[in-house]
TrEMBL record, chain A:
Domain of life: Bacteria
Gene Ontology CC: membrane
Organism (species): Companilactobacillus paralimentarius DSM 13238 = JCM 10415
Name used for this protein in its record: Phosphate ABC transporter ATPase
Membrane as UniProt keyword: yes
TrEMBL record, chain B:
Family classification: Belongs to the binding-protein-dependent transport system permease family. CysTW subfamily.
GO BP: phosphate ion transmembrane transport
Protein name: Phosphate transport system permease protein PstA
InterPro entries: MetI-like (IPR000515), MetI-like_sf (IPR035906), Phosphate_PstA (IPR005672)
Bilayer-spanning residue ranges: 12-34, 66-87, 99-123, 129-148, 181-202, 260-280
Residues in ABC transmembrane type-1 domain copies: 62-279
Automatic annotation (TrEMBL), chain C:
Single Gene Ontology BP annotation: phosphate ion transport
GO cellular component, one term: plasma membrane
Protein name in UniProt: Phosphate transport system permease protein
Keyword Transmembrane (UniProt): yes
Stretches that traverse the bilayer: 20-44, 82-110, 122-147, 153-176, 209-230, 277-296
Ranges in a coiled coil: none
MF GO annotations: phosphate transmembrane transporter activity
Matches recorded under PANTHER family: ABC TRANSPORTER PERMEASE PROTEIN YQGH-RELATED, PHOSPHATE TRANSPORT SYSTEM PERMEASE PROTEIN PST
Organism: Companilactobacillus paralimentarius DSM 13238 = JCM 10415
Pfam families: BPD_transp_1 (PF00528)
ABC transmembrane type-1 domain location: 86-296
Annotated function: Part of the binding-protein-dependent transport system for phosphate; probably responsible for the translocation of the substrate across the membrane.
UniProt family annotation: Belongs to the binding-protein-dependent transport system permease family. CysTW subfamily.
Amino acid sequence: MNEYNLNESYITDIKEKLALSTQNVQVYYGKSQAIFDANLNFPRYKITALIGASGSGKSTFLRCLNRMNDKIATVDGEISYRGVNINSPSTNVYEVRKHIGMVFQRPNPFAKSISENITFALKNAGMKKKQDLEERLEQSLKGAALWDEVKDDLDKSALALSGGQQQRLCIARSIAMHPDILLLDEPASALDPISTSKIEETLKNLSKDYSIIIVTHNLQQASRISDYTAFLHLGHVIEYNSTVNIFTNPQMQATEDYVSGNFG
Amino acid sequence: MNAKKIDRIASFIIYTIVAAVILLLIAILGYILFNGVPDISWHFLTSSAQSFSAGGGIRDQLFNSLYLLVLTIIVSLPIGLGAGIYLSEYASDNWFTDLIRTSVEVLSSLPSVVVSLFGYLLFVIKLKLGFSILSGAIALTFFNLPLLTRNIEESLHNVPNLQREAGMSLGLSNWKTTTKIILPAALPGILTGLILSAGRIFGEAAALIYTAGQSAPTVDYSNWNIFSTNSFLNPMRPAETLAVHIWKVNTESVTPDANLISSASSAVLIIVILLFNLGARFLGNKLYKKITATK
Amino acid sequence: MDKIQKKLQTKSKATFQDYFGKGICYLCIGLIILLVTCILYFIASKGLATFTKDKVNVFDFLTKTNWNPGALDNKGRPDIGALPMIVTSFSVTLLAALIATPFAIGVAIFMSEFSSKNGSKILQPVIELLVGIPSVVYGFIGLSVIVPFIRRIFGGTGFGIFSGTLVLFVMILPTITSLSVDSLKSVPMYYRQASLALGATRWQTIYKVVLRAAIPGLLTAIIFGIARAFGEALAVQMVIGNAALMPKNLISPASTLTSKLTTDIGNTVMGTLPNNALWSLALILLLMSLILNLIVKFIGKRGRF
């Protein structure tokens, strides 16, 4: 593997309105440090991709953004959302996660019916009226481009769906909560190409209403769907720029090697 | 002797041992069922026991066993759930968790007589509950708790972590995630374990001799007032169970048809436990299929 | 501060749900710990009363062979020697473990090494059923089959250590077997593959590689069997004869710690010496189960792959 100076980085200034920003985020697993000093600003209603080789810390970093690492790792630094540091211990994590949803690498629908998968958290959050719930159900399944495929089987078990459908159901489940921000951790890595393209299309449409941050190891995917891209290497953010610039005019040697496939 | 020959001899010995063990089980079950089943009659199941004359039945003992089983599950299941959930969902790797695990291990390795004596001392004597169904149910709880706790912990632990993350990422509290998502997914395992432990409770006698007592007073099966002394539901009355009855008839009783009563009662006991075993498998599988939507 | 900012910084229903849930769990855990502490405390304080309150000499208690707690010996001291019960308990337990172990390991080898699927399919329910049969039923079979059988062959009453051993053998067989299966199955597959690749026969592989590697697990299995046998009360009580005498041979009536307890605790008055002496027997049982527990822990710590 080539040696790069990990302390040099190129971070572009985002002029748009921000959805989320991190200041000096460090993550430790026990004594070993997984993320070093991450300072990133995520624009609103845009898709931002986090790329990097496995072990670069991109998933770890993503999971910090809605406090999913709470029990697993120690996260220092500040994560600001609407002017609140959501990384502070006094922050209500359950509220954070309502506003910042997450979709995981492998589809993980609940062992319940399709409609319950969507409505369960809504009911728990206090939505009682049947009409509201049905409306939200249809709206979110349509948002995830799943409605046409499942509208007649809403009472069937979600586990009977195909992998791609399950993953879109998970996206629907997240957006049903009407979050601000959607975090996706390699959402298509366990899926076939057709399902993948459906998911990508869905995400493109969703970015009108949601700020999306997606981790992917698939460079084509990042270049196809994202507006901004951050490249991470060994826990350091090496370069952050508009996707076009990252892929056509990388500023750092490491980024250039990675996007051109000369890496490692 | 060469290695091949030794290999063949060893295989032969192992096959013989396996055959012997299977035969042993067949002999035991066969003995109990062949001797006992012909003596099981409607009269035997529905009449009360006789102390000095032949022809007694096991109605009260059978009911007591079932009632005690239900009460024990009512007492032990919530505690087992709480402890199991703690160990699987909350416990971190520290001295406190070690203390809990050690406590559960100690409890599970205690001989049932010791548990019974403790129940006798604390509930029957010190708390003045007397020989009663309640004392018996609590003693059986001690005996049942470690198994139940471990089974629940394991069943919860087997639910993939992804399910927890799914719940968390929707802003659900850990408690809601655990009770509404993880617990239902773990239900097949928990249920199987619960029914198997029910079989053990049903056959347990040592823990009951000095807690639920060795007598089955005549009760009125039409009296539904649980506070009335002769009600069949009164938890404060002494209650000899089927298993205790078998022991009693064989060791201390003067009933002339002791052998008949024991063999028929043993057969009833074994049949009920067989049903529990089969039921546990059947229900567990069915529920598992339903939950995972496989056909 | 807008509404969302405020919500992010204040506790919500979910926070309290978590407090509530954790509270319930701690309550249950606390109950279990309290229970275990209570058991240990009560049995210990009762069991020690014989020595502290009634001034019985611990050494005498453990080594003398006369059990006659109601009377005094010729020196005017209480006549309490628990040795017969201790010896009998250890004899039946160890003999039962000795007979059961080869059978259990044989079945376990069959289940984990010989037949991957079909064998386990038949044997798994067999083992579970053997575990499921209640101890009174084992006792009843012992009483109506084994005791008369021994009476016919060896004479005497048929009650005694030998009958107790046979009953316990059947009872601990499934315990040792299922734990042995687990420990054999946890030996990594590549151990076997490596050995077979070197040209060893199946038996050589099992004997020299798999069994060796599984020794800590097998020992644990045997100790669990011993613990079960040592604490078993009713089945043994029904066939051992219940005479608090030093066993002279395997077919003379004897009495184990557990059988003495079950037989006598109801016939003595709480707080008197004969009663306290029985609690001391219970204390021995308790200590024994704690010691076996410790041994299991010790083996577990030393014997990891």
